[in-house]
Amino acid sequence: MSWLLALPFLIPIFTALATFPARARPRLCGVLSIFGCTLLLVVTIAILVLVESNGTHAAQMGDWAAPFGITLVADRLSAVMLLISGIVGLCVAIFALSDIGKYRVKLGFHSFFQLLLAGVCGSFITGDIFNLYVWFEVMLIASFALLVLGGDRIQLDGGIKYVALNLVSTLLMLTSIGMIYGLTGTLNMAQLHISLAAVDNPAAVSTLAVLFICAFGIKAAIFPLFFWLPASYHAPPVAVTAVFAGLLTKVGVYALIRTFTLIFPNDLGFTHSILLGTALLTMLTGVLGAAAHYEFRKILAFHIISQIGFLVLGLALNSPLALAGAVFYMVHNIVAKTNLFLISGTAQRLTGSFELSEIGGIYRASPLLSTFFFIAAFSLAGFPPLSGFWAKLLLLKASLDQAAYWVVVVALVTGVLTLFSMSKIWAEAFLKAHPKDYCKCLGDIPRYERYQRLLPVALLALITLLLGLVPGPFIDYSLAAAGELLEPAGYLGAVLGLQTQ
Amino acid sequence: MNSLILQTATRVLVALILVFSIYMLLRGHNYPGGGFIAGLIAASAFALFAIAWGMESAQSALRIPPGNLAASGVLIAALSGMLALFSGDAPFSGQWLRLTGDKTTGGISISNVLIFDIGVYLAVLGAVLTLIFALEEA
Amino acid sequence: MEGPLALVVGILIATGVYLMLARNLLHYLFGLVLISNAANLAIFIAGRVTRAAPPLIPEGLQVPPEPISNPLPQALILTAIVIGFGLLAFALALIAQAYKVLGTLDVDSMRIAEPIPPKREKSL
């Protein structure tokens, strides 16, 4: 059993090591990478099934008993995040076959990509806060490398800002972990839940809570700390941006959710007020930034920020329904966002640019791609019956239950502005005729490349449709996950009641 | 740098430093030392070589591209954690192969911790040299 | 012993922040190095500074015969030092490469990823 929980990071690490010596042969590299991702997907499905049938599972690495050794824990939230990482990983690995040139493969693209997946999966499954830091760093160093791989001028420029600001977050996280160890004498998250409640030093606990908000807030790109994201996300190739957009910021949000449901006691009222304020500002600044831009990927990048706001909102409202909304929104958003970035890459392939003023005519040239964009974009804007509608409905219902009417107002304004940006892309890139040239249709690109570009997009669009048309089981699952987060007895039992072999 | 004294001294020193790094690697098993520090010491030997004899000579003296060295180090370290698979323990558990003596009397034994340390040694050596060579070219 | 060490952490962080406020990227990086050391020192202090034997159990014993120092903060710091070393080394290589390609270390003049939009004519 303990091996199963270790596989989500072991598989990508070994895939990374396998692709490294093969990097001079792009075809072989791609096959290895896709094989690894498929394996990862199978394992994450197995974990999800296990958690759904038997409840929270924990495993001790190296047979050191909790709370001293490193614990891996899979509860419902972890399991669904792992599954979605597996799906995104596979889709992007397929898309990368045609999007990433030989030059970048030779520099080790696939190895860094797999290392990134290892970091993401490791962060989702660990139950030890210092281990979380280590996985964050694995993820960070892989993302540094992916961001500047190839060394274009724009990549270096964006990369420097990304590196500079993320290193600050790393140091904040390290310091806060050191402080929490000093206060409680443990690093195991389940043990922290118990030990921190016994600490009679509200000032220190409050300071720590705010330090953690800042540290994870930079990673998650919440309101005043998001500047690295729009500066860098449009610089690397689309496949890299897609996996960044889908997974990286969400790991920050996951860490926030984990920290503020499990580690810090819920009666720390002011942290949730801070989170609520920043969530609303994040939502608004994100969409306003998107409204001001006319570049396909920059609009999408600003929307990431806005949607992080929705996720943090779910955490800040701190009710079962709100957390369920956050979980559902996270899944919906990762799928839709990754898909939109992948589509933007194919759109650029067809029309020659990302600048909305210079492109157009995609709808006439390739209705299929346009349909996929329509599904993803209007799901993001919250149109029924697509997945975004249910996600926003849960969050709005949760705010109405708490009589937080101004939250509803901000959410609705954000929704309208999201619709505005998505319609802007739709009108400019898809409906309008191409201003200079003509838009290629999908038949104009080689057959293999066509499949490699369309298959992942179609798969992700299908998931969006599925989440939208049959939301029942997913909402039930999210509610169960939220219940586990608010009542961590099962988590504590699985970790601390565990006997070593 | 074209200095006769440095070049002559380097010939002797590099060998000494490399042997010392192996000593640190093995000593780390029960005393202060270990793969990380030993890897840094070994990397400093090649850095010294590069300063005295130039980048190309250092690269050819290393024989393997440093990136491959780092990757194989990570592979060895990761595989050492997998040895627990054969004994049915949790991942990354310590595995001991006793050559002489038993648990109470002590004696000589080989463990996967040592293999892990060798992996770390190679990984650190490879990573630091990759960096030094990259910076030297920049 | 905690007091003076905490003061050192404070001084390191203050110096680091001062350096990070500079426009020059290299100063920024040096600031980060100082703060990274401050973070490690802070963990060390958080693990309580005591005078005790190294955390080694002599052969043939199951528990240490005398009080030993807490090995966990040291293990944490070691990990953090290794990670910090890797990240900062990468950042240094990146800055060197950026200087070669972009020709400047002044962050204010790095506007390729986020170009300043051309001024529009004001309409009445």
Automatic annotation (TrEMBL), chain A:
Pfam families: Proton_antipo_M. The keyword Kinase does not apply. The chain crosses the membrane at residues 6-24, 31-51, 77-97, 109-126, 132-150, 162-183, 203-226, 238-257, 269-292, 299-317, 323-342, 362-383, 403-422, 454-475. It comes from the Bacteria. It is found in: Cell membrane; Membrane. InterPro entries: CPA3_Na-H_Antiporter_D (IPR050586), NADH_UbQ_OxRdtase (IPR003918), ND/Mrp_TM (IPR001750). Keywords: Cell membrane, Membrane, Transmembrane, Transmembrane helix. It is a multi-pass membrane protein. Residues 128-418 form the NADH:quinone oxidoreductase/Mrp antiporter transmembrane domain. Belongs to the CPA3 antiporters (TC 2.A.63) subunit D family. This is Na+/H+ antiporter subunit D.
UniProtKB/TrEMBL annotation, chain C:
Keywords: Cell membrane, Membrane, Transmembrane, Transmembrane helix. The chain crosses the membrane at residues 6-21, 28-46, 75-96. It is a multi-pass membrane protein. InterPro entries: CPA3_antiporter_subunitC (IPR050601), NUOK/Mnh_C1-like (IPR039428). It comes from the Bacteria. It is found in: Cell membrane. It comes from Microbulbifer echini. Belongs to the CPA3 antiporters (TC 2.A.63) subunit C family. This is Na+/H+ antiporter subunit C.
